[in-house]
UniProtKB/TrEMBL annotation:
It comes from the Eukaryota. Belongs to the BMT2 family. InterPro entries: Bmt2/SAMTOR, SAM-dependent_MTases_sf. Its EC number is 2.1.1.-. Gene3D superfamilies: Vaccinia Virus protein VP39. This is S-adenosylmethionine sensor upstream of mTORC1. One of its GO terms (biological process) is methylation. Keywords: Methyltransferase, S-adenosyl-L-methionine, Transferase. One of its GO terms (molecular function) is methyltransferase activity. SUPFAM superfamilies: S-adenosyl-L-methionine-dependent methyltransferases (SSF53335). S-adenosyl-L-methionine binds at G186, D204. It comes from Mizuhopecten yessoensis (Japanese scallop). S-adenosyl-L-methionine-binding protein that acts as an inhibitor of mTORC1 signaling. Acts as a sensor of S-adenosyl-L-methionine to signal methionine sufficiency to mTORC1. Probably also acts as a S-adenosyl-L-methionine-dependent methyltransferase.
Amino acid sequence: MATVEGREEHLRLAGIIKGLHADLRKKFKKCKDADDFEQIWKEHCEDTDTLRQYADAMHHLAKDHWTRLPETRIDWCRKTILEYFHGDGLKKALEKVARRTKVHQLRRLQNECLDQKKNDAFENRQTDGTGSNTSDKEVLCGDVATHDLQEVDVKKACSSDTDPLPVIATDIGVPFKGRIRLLDVGSCYNPFGAFDEFLSIGLDISPANSMVHRCDFLNLELTNPDPVGLSKDDPLGSLPDSVTELPRQSFHVVVFSLLLEYLPLASQRWTCCCHAHQLLAGNGLLVIVTPDSHKQHRNAAMIKSWRLAVESIGFVRWRYVKLDHIHCLAFRKLEVGEVRDKVVGPASPDMLYIPQDFHEDEEVGVTGHTDADNEDISKTFEELPSCCDSVESD
């Protein structure tokens, strides 16, 4: 059982986290235009003392408190990623893509054959001098459509070669070989670097240790893909301490663990997801972990909104789990030309909202919390034992 001193330290550290989040949101709510937003974010990234305090608090929470849990968010991410790449996850997803592509092409061929048979039959009737009118044509087309057409076209489609999806040099296929290139954004201390199966790159505006590169992900420059460079054993091993650019399609996994709720604007969360899409190779995995101290269905509408927004960028949800105080989502990046099961409607950045976006301004300091506040903070940043697991392999 945790000591009283340990519990108090846990609450103090969590209070630092919530205090910075609330203060940043308060500043952004006072902004009047885009220039103000950019200036405040720039000043925030340059506030090294505050960011260092935040990074230290996150590091201690993760290393000294969350590791006591039966399973941590890092454990869940690792388990999910390995199941996708080295279990049946990716294999089953690609098999479903192949089946969906086959059905789509079969239907297209059936429609083409149907149109051709209708035209041929009508032209033959005219050649015979029957003088069919518009109503005759409608009846004739109906007769043709019901005359063993589907059976004939299905046999033809199944016996013919279907056009494969365009192959991109960086796309991920099966069997997956080699180490998994993982980009951990808002990494703090690069926890995935402890696992041999990952080539992990940690990014943060305020790294907690030398294993993490300093980077403002919102303003990261995305350069052209480098398939040749990615063929090396450690293609990204020589990155500088401060990263300002990365090549597109370079990673198998991008992780946003407790990142999106840090950002005060929905548009910033949208930008992060767009950057993740460009940095991932085809069939790559975007993993999102976000806190929620309420019961499973309390913020169900928010999670649905997030899903629709992320999928509109070019993803499809592969897995969703609601743990005790956290939501865990994994999205697969669609291949070029891939057909979806269902049409994704229009989306906008404001769909990536969090409940705090709608709260009135509050005077929140780094340590100015009641016991009830701190208890809620603590629950928000705890993770796990029970969960509701929803798996959708596309």
